[in-house]
Give the backbone structure.
Amino acid sequence: MKRNSFLFLISAVFFATVPVSAAKNSAYSSNVAPEAAVSFWDAKTADWQASSDAAYKDSLGWLYVTQDMLAAAPQLQAWAQSLKGKFDYCAVIGMGGSSLPVSALNAFNGDKKGYPKLLIIDTSDPDAYLKIEKDINLERTLFIISSKSGATPETLYGYKYFWDKLRAIKGESAGENFVAVTGEGSKLYQDAADKKFLRVFTDRKDFGGAFGAISYSSLVPAAVAGYDINALLSSAKNYLSEVKKDYTLPQSIADTLASSKRVFLVTDDELKPFAFWLQQIISESLGKDGRGPVPFAVNKIDKKMLSEGDAVVFIGNKPRNIGNVPYFYLPCDGADIGKQFVLWEFTAFSAAQKMGVDPFKQPDAALSKKQTEALLENGIAAPQEAKSSAFGAQPSANIVALLKKEGASAKFAAVMAYTEDNPENSEALADFSKDLQNKIQVPVIASFCPRCLHSLGQVFKGGENDGVFLILMRVVSDLRVPLDKEADMKDLIMAQAYGDFLAMEGKGRKVIFVNVNMPFDQYLKMLSKAL
C-alpha cells in the first residue's frame, strides 16, 4: 500500500440489518441508521451546555488548538528548516498522548530525504535504551522531551539518561541537542530554561491526553522530520468547518461505541500506530464506571470472535465479509490524517456524553502510577515467583491451565509484556497471543508496556470486569539515571509491572503476574506448546 494513498474504513457491528445511509459531510456508506445529529457546537442545544459545564471548562482546548497551530505554523516550519542538516536523528521521548500521534504521523509519512530520521522512545526498558544509544550518533541527535505535566516518569528517566550522556560529551553546550514540549511552569519547563535547551514549546493548558493529537507535541517532531504540517492543519481546519454544519458522522460512530462492549480496529502493519492512538482515546474517554468498549488493534478479524455488542473499524482496507453486520465506509488518504484526529476527538467526546461519563478524567489509569511510586519509595522489589489474583489458586502450578479455564468464560484476554519491544519478542508475543486466542476462543490483546498503561490502562481497570490478564516481565540490563537522587531504570520498569498487577488486583481483575526467568521469546514458545 502506498503511504500517500490509503482507505480509511469504519464499520459498526450489529446483528440486525438497517437501511444504508450516507453522511452529507463525507463520502461514506453505512448500514447504521443515524439518529438526528445534534452538534454541541450549537450554543442553543443542551449538548453545548453540557460541554460548557464546569466539569469540562478546563478540558475543551482541543476545539480551538488547530487555530493556534495554524498561527504558529510559519515560525515553527522556519525554525525546523534551520535545523536541516544539523541532525541525523530526531528522538521523541514521551508517552501516551506525547508519542502515539507522532507514531501515527511517522507511519503515514516515513523518512524524508535530507531530514532527521524520526525515532519514538516510549518505554522504560533498559535494553531498548542501550540499543538506541548504540544505533545513533548522540551528537547528531536532537532529543525532544515531551511531557505536558513535565513529570511523566518514563519520560524523565529517558531525558535524564541521555542528558547525562550528552553533557559528558559537550559539557555546558548539551542543551543544543534538546527541545522541550511541556506545560508552562512545569519542572521540565524550568529545567529546560536552566540548561539552555534549544527551544521550549508550551501548549494551551485546557486539554491533554489523547485530545492533544494536534498540538506542539505532534507538530514539533513532525516539522523537524520534514512532514507537511500545513497539510495536516488544513485537513483538520476543513473538517472542523464541515462538522459544524453536519454532525452526522461523528455522532453515528459515537452512538455505536456508546452501546458496544468491544471494538475491533482492523489495520495493516503500516497503519497500526494510528489504531494504537485510537485505542488510547477510546480507552481514556469511555472505559470507566464499569463500562466502555475494549479496543483491539488487529491485522484481521475472525468472524467467529464477533458477538452482539461488538463494533468493527477497518482502517486501510476495504471492509471484509464479517457476516450480517452493518458498517461505515469512509475513504481517506494520507493528507487527511488531520481530519481523522478531529473526527475521533469529536466521536470520543460525544460517545462519553451519551454514556454519561467524563471523557477527560482517567482515575483508574492513575492507580498503577500510585502503586509504582509506592514500590519505588519503599524499595519493594517485584516477586520472583508467579502471582495471581481472584483465582483462588497459585498460577505457578499451571499458568496455562488457569488461562484456559478463566479465559474461556471471559469477554477478552490481554497479554501485557514488560520487556524490550524487539523483532524477536514482538513475533513471539504475536504468535502466543494468536495461539491463546485459538485455544480459548475469545479475542486477545497483545501489547508492550509500559506504553500500554497510557493507551489501555484506563479501560483495563475502569471498564467492565470481564477480562483475564497476563502480565509478563523480563528485564535483563540496568541503567543508572541521574535523577534528583541516583535511580535505576530497571527498578522503574519492574515497579511498573508489579505495580500494574497490584492495581488490577485492587480492582478485582483476574490477573496473573510472571517474572520471566528465561529469554522472553523462549518462554512464550514454551507456553504455546503447553496450550
